[in-house]
Each structure stands twice: as structure tokens, then as C-alpha cells.
Design brief:
471 residues, mainly alpha
């Protein structure tokens, strides 16, 4: 039984089948359920080195969802191969730099990214980004990656797609349920397999590609759509950044933590997105099962290994998505006294994400394109507020504000909300909704994230007096 008031495991004559570690005793245990939720990590539990962030952030991007961004650039957005390469480089570089900056703060504060967001949004105003992230991470991204993993397993085994989806979801939830240390361990041991297979596959696809055959015609609009989609994918990890650096000892190099995290995201995303763009020029037809379209360009053995790695990569990505989604949900001031609260919330998100993934199976391509842009729409204005606040109040000891309900900073949520609504209403350019600006100037593509970032940033500077002084 679980004692609700104390949050501890009830004493029994037999040890529990699954160990729930106590705060201060979790340390580097891998097969133990991480205790608590979003509280600062006790010094006794701090461990690890910055270099581990390289595989923690490389492995989750070595999956088909990353490949498909590059494929979209050519077959959906109408870019030539080289235009697609430049566009994904642009979007990935921007997302990786911001990811590095945010990751570097984790060792100092020892709390998740969405708790750090309270500094720039206030305790209650932070419900806006935390709510969006819990929905997008724990449900949205979970569904997207589960679909790609299910398609791969279906292509590899011939099992019904729904059964494949169940298998992938169970594997993902198992890793996320145990928590931080098992997530890191899974990413570490998955990396050699994923890196070797996807790298060999990329070389083969590039060798078979014909970059000059991509007709292009997407122009500036297609370029901006691709850059926004790539940014949405890469920066989609930004709201989780400190989640995976908060256990590092405070004395480690914060710069090294940021560099390794940003490098892991940038390299993995860029290589596979380029492979996706190349696959279209090699003749891959993405109108059917998208994973089969990509692997169909590979030799039989490598094709089967790639399908296996797509499924493993989906687990690597979603272990992070559902884990961080649960942490964001707890930032909504949800009162759960159980020591198992993070693990239980992870399971609930997995159940909802499974249903959403099930409904997305028939039209995964269009749903994914729209989802990537939506991610970029809200992350960009959130980033503007967070980065500006971090720069304006650099060097100050503001950690007491993280847990104080009295900390109000309405400049943050107002700036983010205005930036989000104004940019989407005027500049959004996707299947679900097209704003008046791209309707009048179709060649403009989708610059919603850039507009949202600029509007939110400028408005936050104007409303800066609403933030109480840090003493």
C-alpha cells in the first residue's frame, strides 16, 4: 500500500516488487522509481557528468519523425535538396542554441525547466506555458512518435498496426515510469545501435539520391515553412531542457552542460533531416506508409535494422516526452501527496497519448506537419520571455521565487499570450488555418514563430515594470 499522508511505502513483511527510492537515497540508482516530482534535487542525489547529455539528446532524435521533417521539405514544401539542407540547418541551429542556454541552468537550480519558467511568468502566470507543455509533450509528441514507432514495427513484423502501437506505448511508459535515471540509461545504451544503423542508412540514401532531380518551386515560402518546422522540432525539446541537467552536481561546468545538450540535439536532427530530404530525391514515395517509403530505399538487411531502430528511437523520444510532460503537469500546482505522483501522472499521459495516436494513424503525414508548426507557434514567444528575463536578471539570486506563490510577474504571460495570438491570427500558414497575411502574400510561407518571438520579446520589455524587483 501507499501511505497517502506520508507519501512513503507502507511497511510490510516482504520487500516491494518495485523499489521506490526515498529523496536523498535515489542517487544513481537505475532500476528504482524516482521519488517525488518537481522539488529541488537533494544534494545527496546529485550525480553525473555533462557529457552524458550528448547521448541523452542524440538518441531521442534518431527516429523516423526526424527523417520525415526533411522529407516534408522536398515533397510537401517544394524545396530543392540544397534549399532543404540550408533550411533545416537554420531551424536546427536556432533551436539547438536556445536548448544549450536553457540546459546550462539546470545544475544551479536543481529543478525542472517549467519550474524555472516561474521566474519569468510568476507562480500563477506560469500555468500558461506549463499547461501547454504538458499537453504538447505528454500527449501531442507522445502520439506523434508512437505512430512512427507503430508503423515501423508493423512494417518489420507484419503484426496489426494497433497491436504494434500497444507494444511501443508499453515500452515507452515503462522507461518513463521509473524516471530520470532509467531515461538517461536507456538513451545511453540505445545510442550505439541507433547511431550506427541510421548513419549507415544516411550514407546509403545519400549515395542513391539525385539532388538535382528535386524540381523545387517552393521559393522563400517553402524555405520559411521548412525552417519553422525544423525549429519546431528542435526547439520542441527546449521546455524540457533543465529536466535532464537538474541532477548534475552544482559544481560541474554549466557551459559544458549546455554545449553537450545543444550538440546532441543539433547533430542528430540535422543528419537525419538531410537523409529525409535525400530520400525523396532517391525516389521514396511518402503517400503511403512513410516509414516503408524511407526504408524501401535501403538494402533488405539494413532496411529491417532501420525499422527496428525507428521503433527503438520512438521509445527513446517518448520516454523523454512523457517524463517531462508529467513534470510540467505537476507545475500546474496539482496537489498529489503520493511519492509516486510523477510516475502515476506519466501513466495517465500515456493512456491519453495512446488514444490520440490511434486516431492519427490514418493521416499521419498531414497531422505531423500541422503539429510541428503548432509547436513552433507557442515555443517561440515562450522562449522570448524566458531568455529576456534570464538576461535582464542575470547574476541575481532569484531561487526563492521558484516556490513562492506570492511571486507575480504578469509581464510574462501577457507578452507570451499577445505574441502567440497575434502571430497565429495574422501569419499562420497551414492546413488547419491560414492567416490574412499569407493569404495575401502566399510566397511569404510561415513566419509565425519569428513574429511571435519578436512581439513577445518587445512587449515583455515594455511591461518589465510589472515584474517585482529581485532583492
Amino acid at each position: 500500500m501507499i501511505g497517502v499522508d506520508s507519501g512513503r511505502m507502507a511497511t510490510t513483511d516482504h520487500p516491494p516488487a518495485v523499489e521506490l527510492a526515498e529523496p536523498g537515497e535515489y542517487g544513481d540508482k537505475v532500476v528504482a522509481i524516482e521519488p517525488g516530482g518537481i522539488e529541488p534535487v537533494p544534494d545527496a542525489d546529485k550525480h553525473g557528468r555533462p557529457i552524458q547529455l550528448l547521448w541523452t539528446w542524440a538518441s531521442p532524435n534518431l527516429e523516423f519523425a526526424t527523417v520525415f521533417v526533411g522529407a516534408l521539405a522536398v515533397f510537401a514544401f517544394g524545396l530543392t535538396f540544397w534549399q532543404a539542407v540550408l533550411a533545416v540547418l537554420t531551424g536546427n541551429l536556432l533551436g539547438a542554441i536556445t536548448h544549450a542556454v536553457l540546459s546550462a541552468r539546470g545544475p544551479r537550480y536543481g529543478v525542472p525547466q517549467m519550474v524555472l519558467s516561474r521566474l519569468s511568468f510568476g507562480y500563477w502566470g506560469n500555468l500558461l506555458p506549463a499547461g501547454l507543455n504538458s499537453l504538447m509533450a505528454g500527449v501531442g509528441w507522445f502520439a506523434v512518435n508512437s505512430v512512427s514507432g507503430a508503423f515501423a514495427l508493423n512494417s518489420l513484423t507484419g503484426l496489426p498496426t494497433l497491436l504494434c502501437l500497444v507494444i511501443v506505448v508499453v515500452a515507452q511508459l515503462t522507461v518513463a515510469f521509473f524516471g530520470h535515471n532509467l531515461v538517461h540509461a536507456f538513451e545511453r545504451y540505445a545510442l550505439p545501435l541507433l547511431a550506427v544503423v541510421f548513419l549507415v542508412g544516411t550514407v546509403v540514401v545519400l549515395a542513391r539520391s539525385s539532388p538535382s532531380t528535386a524540381a523545387g518551386g517552393g521559393g522563400l515560402g517553402g524555405f520559411l515553412l521548412t525552417a519553422s518546422a525544423a525549429f519546431g522540432y528542435t526547439a520542441g525539446w527546449n521546455p524540457y531542457a533543465a529536466d535532464y541537467t537538474r541532477y548534475l552536481p552544482a559544481g560541474v561546468s554549466h557551459r559544458a552542460a549546455g554545449v553537450y545538450a545543444g550538440l546532441g540535439v543539433f547533430v542528430s536532427c540535422t543528419v537525419l533531416m538531410i537523409a529525409g530530404a535525400a530520400s525523396v530525391t532517391a525516389g521514396a514515395d511518402y503517400t503511403g506508409n512513410p516509414t516503408t517509403a524511407y526504408t524501401g530505399e535501403l538494402p533488405a538487411v539494413l532496411s529491417h535494422l532501420t525499422l527496428l531502430c525507428v521503433a527503438v528511437g520512438a521509445v527513446a523520444a517518448n520516454a523523454i516526452n512523457v517524463y517531462s510532460g508529467a513534470l510540467s503537469f505537476l507545475c500546474l500546482n496539482v496537489r498529489l501527496s503520493l511519492a509516486w505522483r510523477r510516475a502515476i501522472v506519466a501513466l495517465l499521459f500515456g493512456a491519453v497519448g495512446f488514444v490520440l495516436a490511434w486516431t492519427a494513424l490514418p493521416d499521419a503525414g498531414h497531422d505531423y506537419e500541422s503539429f510541428l508548426l503548432v509547436i513552433a507557434y507557442w515555443v517561440a514567444p515562450w522562449l522570448a520571455v524566458v531568455l529576456l528575463d534570464q538576461w535582464l536578471y542575470r547574476g541575481r539570486d532569484d531561487s526563492p521565487l521558484l516556490t513562492s506563490p506570492a511571486h507575480h510577474n504578469w509581464a510574462g504571460p501577457i507578452a507570451m499570450l499577445v505574441g502567440l495570438v497575434a502571430s497565429v491570427a495574422l501569419f499562420s500558414n497551414q492546413q488547419l488555418y491560414t492567416g490574412p497575411v499569407p493569404e495575401a502574400v502566399p510566397s511569404l510561407g510561415d513566419i509565425t514563430p519569428a513574429i511571435g518571438f519578436a512581439v513577445a520579446g518587445l512587449l515583455y520589455l515594455v511591461l518589465r515594470p510589472l515584474r517585482p524587483p529581485v532583492t
